[in-house]
Write a structure and sequence with these properties.
The chain has helices at 7-35, 46-76, 83-116, 119-125, 127-160. It is mostly helical.
Length: 170
Amino acid sequence: MKEEIPLKDLIKFVLEESRVILPGVQALFGFQLIAVFNDRFAELDATTRYVHLIATFFSCISVALIMAPAAYHRQVEPEAASHAFIQYASKLICAGLLPLILSMTLDSYVITKVVTGDSVVSWLASIAPAVLPLWLWYYIPQKQKRRMERAKKVAIDIEHAPLQGLPGRT
């Protein structure tokens, strides 16, 4: 049986989760901003520079989505706690991970292109930075969520099932 967690603790957990993710996104964003002021950036072909620009925009979107729960909570429910906020914040944080994956993938292309000079190799090398987080951040949690929902449904069905056919029951 699951332990009931107080609502105030759930709010604390969801806000801490966004605080854990945010420094990584901000660090990536900072490196992306610095890159354009590097002398070698001007030497990149136009396509690679635009890929980097798009990656930077995805980082901005990710920062906005991941910071949104704290901004919302501070403005709407600063002295309250609600399950609706937890659901809203969870959706925003999960949504913020997708543009982060896109940003990491596109910048992996840029880095590989600088190192190898080959566009095809660069796109192929960018697959791992896309697939691994998709697998870890979306596929595995969704698979576990479905498994838990099935187990919960079976437990409820067993709880409400007739007792016929069980030893000692008629």
